Amino acid sequence: MTPTTTTTILPPFNLPTPIILLITDELSSPADFLLHRCLHQHLKLDKNNRVVVLSVSESLARWKSVASRSNVNLDNGSVEFIDVMSHVSPVPIRPDTSDTPSAFKANTLRPIFDIVLKSLNGSSEVNDVAGSSKLVILDDISTLEWIGFTSDDVVRFVRALRGACIKTNATLIVRHHRVSNDVANDDLFSHLYQMCTYHLEVRGLASGRSGSVSGEIALHAGPGTVPTKDSVNLLPRSGAMQYRLTDTSAVFFEKGTGGAVL
């Protein structure tokens, strides 16, 4: 996916749009604050901007509570909140046979995709405005796998979302919880990484918890992202940016700067 606008998201990373952004996190360093930060910024940037939130494990009440602390109103028609678990059911264990339909083909994930597609095409109950910027947030994809969907089911679903976002020039953000650093055994991550434009990797500190530092964030380019003179400044793990959570969001600073805020 090639960015086509001058609008950027998630300062201080300043990622271009539209893109496919993969955000990974760990139990010790959840990336909720990045999702909320991006949502709030997107809505404040233009009153005509639209957001579709696909929430698997967090309630609408939680999203509203966090937004209210940043003076963002989620009830003004700009946000379409989809409670994924109310539209799908855990997949029963079935014999692994060649004629067993996948969850997506069996319409267990298809209803979710259809809702998103309808919204992106401007025919949902939320009025679409020509020229407005669209954002789709999928949080969190890992739970779909944990409740019984196969990696193939989930990958197929994300691939369909990616295709729809590309066609409508919408940015897609997908959060994936990493339970292991063993990439070779994380098939879902491998597939998601192949599809992304950029990958934000949120990790806890190797030295353990700190009162002044909550964690660190590395920024990687996706396999298909071609560097240009205007490319985003990538951050390898060795040069990861550190952050400290606050009541409303987070502050960011470079390693070794003593917490000097960027």
Question: What can you see in these coordinates?
Answer:
The chain has a domain at 23-87 and 106-200: 3-Layer(aba) Sandwich (Rossmann fold), CATH 3.40.50. The strands form two sheets. The chain has a nine-stranded mixed beta sheet, with helices on both faces. 25% of the residues lie in helices and 21% in strands. The protein starts with 7 loop residues before the first strand and ends in a 9-residue tail after the last strand. The longest helix has 17 residues, at 151-167. It has helices at 32-45, 60-69, 110-120, 142-146, 151-167, 187-195, and strands at 8-9, 15-16, 20-25, 50-55, 79-83, 134-139, 171-177, 198-203, 215-221, 241-245, 250-253. Helix 3 (110-120) runs parallel beside helix 5 (151-167) and helix 5 runs parallel beside helix 6 (187-195). It is built from six helices and eleven strands. Strand 10 (241-245) and strand 11 (250-253) form a beta hairpin. The chain has 262 residues and is α/β, with parallel strands linked by helices.
